[in-house]
Structures are given as C-alpha cells and as structure tokens.
Specification:
By secondary structure, the chain is an all-alpha fold. The chain has two domains: 136 residues, Four Helix Bundle (Hemerythrin (Met), subunit A), CATH 1.20.120; 138 residues, Orthogonal Bundle (Helix Hairpins).
Length: 278
C-alpha cells in the first residue's frame, strides 16, 4: 500500500517530469520563463555596470533578485532530485547538469568570493547558462523533435563531412604557412588554419590576408569552395526532415477508416471526419 510520502513524490514527479499532462507542461513553461526572466536581469545588470559586494549593507536590488532566483531554482532542483526514482541518474544526466548550473553561480560567489569578484564577467556568463532551460520546453514541440531526429539520422554523413572539412583546412593552412610565411601574418600553423577556416566560411575578418600571387590563388579557391559547402549540411538535414515528415504522415492512420497521410496538426480524418489520435 503506498504511503503518503510515496504518493507525494509521485504527484511532484508528474508535475515536474511528465509533460504529457497539462500541469506538467505548465510547470516546465513557468520555470523556462523564469529562467528567461533571470537572464534578462543579467543583461540589464551588465548594461548598468553594477558590482557585487559581500557586505550586507552594500547589497542592492540585483543582489536580492539574484538571491530570490537562486532560491527558487534551488528548491526546484531539490524537488527534482528527491522525486526521481533513482536520484543519481538524474543528477548525472544532461538535464540534471543544466538544472544544477542554474543554481551554482551565486553559491560559487559566496564560497569563493575572491574568484567571483575578480572574474565577474565569467560569473555572469555562468548565470546566462540558465537560458538553456528553455530547451526543456522546446524539446516537446513536434517540429523541433522532427529536426532533432533528422540531425540524428544524418549524424554519420555530417561527421564525415566535417571531418573532411577539418582535413582540408589543415592542408590549406599548411600551404599558406609555407607560401606566405611569418612576414605576412602567418606566424604559426595554428594561425594559418584559423585563416583557412575564416576564409572558407566566407567571413573574412581581414586580420590576416595573403600578399603573394600563390596565396591569393589559394584564398580564391577556398572562397569558392566555401560557397559550395554551405549547401551540403543543409541538404542532408532537409532530406532527412522530409523523410521524417513522410514517415509521420504514413504512421498517422485514422482509427475509424485506416486512412493515412494526415498532417501533424490534423485533429480529424480528411476521409471520414473521425477524430484522430493525438
């Protein structure tokens, strides 16, 4: 017979982890919006240029807001750990690390104040990680799941493609290192590979530029290659997304007349008008 504690853990679990229920989706959306609110505060605080002090008398409004945000996320994190069937699995999971990162910044500043004050920019960056909480809501959107599955299916082709690009960048970087040399800014092989990556991506910062005829020829080839490379990963993901969409349409069969080919957002069968399963 379930105890009151077990029943409470189950209710909390459904509200925090079960996004199939309306209450679960609302709780996840609330914490995502709360995380977005905390990130907006960070940008406002950074724009004003406020400084953090550990003396109670010197605390300002942003300190109190940060304390409030941290306490809310800490309470949520403790509840998630306690209601998960195997807490260690949640703590060391990807989303467990994300949730932990939302509560750590203020505690880091309190435990190691000399680190937090001297590296305040890094501390603010740690707090901005909270925006990743929004991904916990986006992952339940059908369109995003289609995109994610398409990327997962194309992962082998993408890995092969980017591995080939990496080899090509090293080869072209080595060529430029040998042709141009340190006198024209190609001081190391690392700098040359950096130039090749910037050039093939058609960004072209201009901090390192070739001066010899051979170097400019290689730069021109890289720019032309860059324009053609942009379409390859896009085409791979698009083809897998089309296959995923067709697969979902074929799998959505009407329970009344067994007609297939319905859209993802369709609620009624286009053949018999019967209600479709969600």
């Amino acid at each position: 017979m379930p105890t009151a504690t077990t029943s409470f853990r189950q209710r909390v679990y459904r509200r925090l982890f079960d996004q199939r229920t309306r209450s679960g989706r609302r709780v996840e959306a609330f914490f995502a919006l709360f995380a977005l609110f905390s990130v907006v505060l960070i940008f406002i605080e950074s724009g004003i240029g406020t400084q953090y002090h550990l003396t109670f008398e010197e605390w300002h409004a942003f300190v109190w807001l940060e304390i409030f945000v941290t306490l809310v996320f800490t309470f949520e994190y403790i509840l998630r750990v306690l209601c998960w069937p195997k807490p260690a699995n949640y703590v060391f999971s990807f989303w467990g690390f994300i949730d932990l990162a939302t509560v750590l910044p203020l505690y880091v500043l309190w435990l190691w104040p000399e680190i937090g004050i001297h590296y305040l920019f890094a501390w603010r960056a740690m707090r901005a990680v909270r925006v990743l909480r929004i991904l916990k809501v986006l992952r339940f959107m059908p369109s995003l799941m289609i995109l994610w599955r398409a990327i997962a299916r194309a992962r082998q082709q993408l890995i092969l493609f980017y591995a080939f690009i990496a080899v090509m960048m090293i080869v072209f970087g080595a060529l430029m290192y040998g042709i141009e040399g340190p006198q024209y800014g190609f001081t190391t092989l690392n700098a040359s590979v950096y130039w090749a990556i910037v050039t093939v991506s058609t960004v072209g910062y201009g901090d390192i530029t070739p001066h010899t005829a051979a170097g400019r020829t290689i730069a021109s080839i890289l720019i032309l290659i860059g324009y053609s490379l942009i379409a390859i990963p896009t085409g791979l993901i698009t083809s897998h997304m089309s296959a995923e969409l067709n697969s979902r349409r074929q799998s959505r069969a009407c329970p009344h007349c067994r007609h297939i080919g319905h859209e993802d957002d369709a609620r009624y069968c286009k053949a018999c008008g019967g209600a479709l399963a969600e």
